[in-house]
Every structure is written in C-alpha cells, then in structure tokens.
C-alpha cells in the first residue's frame, strides 16, 4: 500500500488494535492518546509499551504515529506533563500534538527530535498565528474547524512551504469554538478541556417558562433561526480535491472513541479518494508510482512580496473535479453517523443542527470479524460472530485498498468452533466458519444492511 507524507490521510485510534487497523487500511499516519494529557479520556488509549509496539508496526508499513498532549494543563500538572513527554520521546513516536504554548516550548526542549503539531484547540485562524508558531518550533498547525476553503488557501499561501496544514475532513463536530467549551464542566463537572467531555451539546433541551412550571416547549429550528446544539457530522469525502487544492497537506478523520470497524471503513474510503486524486491530478500513475512531485493549487508569495489573500491567493481557473465512484460515496453511510454536512468549508452551505434527535443513524451492522481464511472446500472463513448470519443474506467484507467484497451467503456450510454443522450463525461472540471463495484478510469486518434503519445512541 502506498503511504506518503503529503497529502496525508490521518486516522484516529483509541487503542493499539485501532492503530494497527488504521495502518492496515491505508492510514499514512495515526493519532492517538496515552493514558494522560489527551483530549479523549473515554477510549482506553495507549500505554508507553503500546506506543513502542504501535510505532514499530506503523514504521514497518511506512506510516507514522502522533501522540496527543493537547489538554490545557493546570499548574499542578506541569511537572507530570514534562515527565510524560520525556517518556514519550523514547517510544519511537513521530510527533506530539500540543495546544498550550508552554507545553510546546517544554516539548521542544525535552524532545527535540519529535515534530510538534499545534492542535485545533489552539484556534489558529490566520497565517500570522501560524507563522508565529512556526518560529516557536511547530511544523504543523491543525486549523480551527471554523475555517472556510478560502481561509485555508490564504493561510497556505502565506506560511513556509515546509509547514503542514492539517484540516478535519470527517466525523463529529463540537459546537464550541475549536472545541474549547465549558458547557460539560458547568453541567456535569467533567472538563472538556481535559478530555472528559460529557457531550451535553448532544442532549435534547426544552424551554420552561417560569410562570408555567411543568410545561415544556421544544426548541425548534425554523427559517427564522435555530439553537446551537447537536451539530451535524462532517463529511468531506466528495470534496477532498478542493480541500487538497486549497493547501491542506493532512486530512484528519475524527473518532478516537470509535470502533475498529469505523476506523477501517473511513480510513479506507479517504485513502482511496486521495489515491484517485493523485492519479487524476497527474502526480501518480495507476500503480501508485510517482509521476510528478505533489503540489497544491495555491499561489504563494515570493520573497519580499506582500502577502496575497482572497482571490489573489487562488490559481487562475479551477482544476477539473475528481469524481468518486458510487461505492466510495456510499461508504460514510455504512458507519453509524449523524446527518452529514461539509462543516464550515463552504459558507453558502454552512453546518446546521439536528433539533429532533441526538442519536446516530445505523443502516449497516457488523455481523462478524474475520479470524482467518483457508482454501479448504473451495474457500472458508473463520469468524467471530457479532450478529445474525443466515443463508441468502447479502454481506460485504471491508477490503483494504478498494471496494468492499459483496457476497451472498450460501445455504448450508455453517460450522461451529468444534466443526459441527449448524443451520445459521446466531450466537454473538462465538467462533464459526462458513464458505467464502474469495480470500479475505484477517480482521476484515463483515457487515450487512439492517432490515430497517435504526437510531443508535452513542
């Protein structure tokens, strides 16, 4: 699989399995948190030993590992934070993601060989801030999610060529500016700026008028206004060409609390889309071999020239759009998701809110995870069951590097772990085997459409 530095597909991982899954399905880099000082405390996260093993695995496959140290530490945490950075520098990881400027300077001193990436929590919205952070040692800025495409172009045009621009492309969005919110802390005592957000912006609210106790009036969205909670999820899969053209060098998928299936499906989708971009723009051939050095479509300033902004920062004319095949456009709808939007990248189509629900749509279910394949009897898979599988059922295997493998389950041929025939698979978390003529990789997810779409609380 072709791993590259730019444009980079950056996938999330909440544990060591997620890290390896992301790499297996094409991630050029994986970001993950340790047991402390990350902005997601709900996942199990990784130990120092996990970082060592995960870094070795990633490097063997041409990928990199970034560690989140992006909380806003309080005085009592400073010394522990510095000690933790000192431990991380010897694990083989490639970069630290930081927010606090003091942590940035300490990390530069303690771990000089690690790249420093400035988190979206820092709220970088202009090239002045990006350049200042570059002077302080940062080699990447994760732009505030409130940026539109033109703002991305303007920043890219006016910062050093060797400074990366990382942009979110998929997943949940926070209603607070760049994720810096006090709502959870106020309502639940769980500090969102220390990775403990309870997501109260997803809760359903009503108004109670003080003279009418017990009467609840729903907060609704109309043509005249809306309430600012429960944002739609972001989905930029069909617009990656415009975002990369605008100067994004790293494309970040949100979801360190998500399952290995989500990581596999979304990493594979975005990696495939970027591969298509590289071929259609003439940077690589169909086999992934380099034809021309990668570059974006942004017009940069010359030495001594005044910064260009607005229309001056764009290229003359727009490149031809990179159209995606139908199977690829459908992938984001095969994981649990809220209504989708393109975030703030297109001011004419701004992100909106769900006013009637905070749950996820779930149109597809994971019904099994592949433990192995053998050519026995024309091909058989051994799987760990997750949901019901029966004859005649149409299933898909998520395959790294391409479209899913669709397969109709034949009648007969099911066996339990002891090799005894069974009529169907209907016992979750048990080992079974079944006919499958196509070799499928270990850990591939096996999914099937639900009989009726459901809402899933997460």
Automatic annotation (TrEMBL):
Domain of life: Bacteria
Keyword entries, A-Z: Hydrolase, Protease
Entry-linked InterPro entries: Peptidase_U32, Peptidase_U32_C, RNA/ubiquinone_mod_enzymes
Any Pfam family matching the protein: Peptidase_U32
The Peptidase family U32 C-terminal domain, residue ranges: 362-447
Family, as annotated: Belongs to the peptidase U32 family.
PANTHER family per record: PEPTIDASE U32 FAMILY (PTHR30217), TRNA HYDROXYLATION PROTEIN P (PTHR30217:SF6)
Protein name in UniProt: U32 family peptidase
Record organism: Bifidobacterium phasiani
């Amino acid at each position: 699989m072709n791993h590259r530095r730019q444009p980079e597909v950056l996938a999330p991982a909440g544990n060591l399995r997620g890290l390896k899954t992301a790499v297996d399905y094409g991630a050029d880099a994986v970001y993950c948190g340790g047991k402390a000082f990350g902005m997601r405390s709900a996942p199990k996260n990784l130990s120092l030993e996990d970082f060592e093993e995960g870094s070795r695995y990633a490097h063997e496959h041409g990928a990199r590992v970034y560690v989140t140290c992006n909380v806003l530490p309080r005085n009592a945490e400073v010394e522990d934070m510095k000690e933790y950075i000192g431990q991380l520098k010897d694990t083989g990881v490639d970069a630290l993601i930081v927010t606090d400027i003091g942590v940035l300077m300490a990390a530069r001193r303690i771990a000089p060989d690690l790249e420093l990436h400035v988190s979206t929590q820092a709220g970088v919205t202009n090239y002045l801030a990006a350049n200042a952070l570059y002077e302080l040692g940062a080699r990447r800025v994760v732009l505030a999610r409130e940026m539109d495409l033109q703002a991305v172009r303007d920043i890219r045009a006016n910062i050093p060529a060797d400074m990366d621009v990382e942009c979110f492309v998929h997943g949940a969005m926070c209603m607070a500016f760049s994720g810096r919110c006090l709502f959870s802390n106020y309502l639940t005592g769980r500090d969102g700026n220390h990775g403990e957000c309870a997501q109260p912006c997803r809760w359903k609210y009503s108004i109670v008028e003080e003279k009418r106790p017990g009467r609840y009036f729903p907060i609704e969205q109309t043509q005249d206004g809306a309430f600012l909670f429960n944002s739609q999820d972001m989905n930029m899969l069909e617009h990656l060409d415009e975002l990369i053209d605008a100067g994004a060098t790293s494309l970040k998928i949100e979801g360190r609390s998500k399952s290995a299936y989500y990581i596999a499906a979304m990493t594979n989708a975005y990696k495939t889309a970027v591969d298509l971009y590289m071929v259609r723009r003439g940077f690589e051939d169909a086999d992934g071999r380099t034809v021309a050095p990668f570059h974006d479509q942004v017009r940069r300033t010359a030495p001594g020239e005044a910064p260009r902004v607005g229309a001056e920062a764009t290229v003359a004319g727009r490149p031809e759009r990179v159209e995606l095949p139908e199977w690829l456009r459908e992938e984001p709808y095969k994981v649990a998701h809220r209504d989708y939007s393109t975030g703030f990248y297109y001011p004419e189509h701004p992100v909106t809110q769900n006013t009637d629900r905070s749950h996820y749509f779930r149109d597809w279910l994971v019904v099994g995870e592949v433990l192995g394949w053998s050519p026995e009897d024309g091909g058989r898979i051994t799987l760990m069951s997750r949901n019901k599988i029966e004859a005649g059922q149409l299933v898909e295997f998520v395959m790294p590097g391409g479209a899913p493998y669709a397969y109709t389950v034949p009648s007969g041929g099911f066996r339990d772990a002891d090799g005894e025939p069974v009529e169907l698979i209907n016992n979750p978390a048990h080992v079974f085997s079944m006919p499958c003529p196509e070799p499928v990789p270990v850990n591939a997810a096996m999914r099937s459409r639900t009989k009726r779409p459901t809402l899933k609380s997460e």
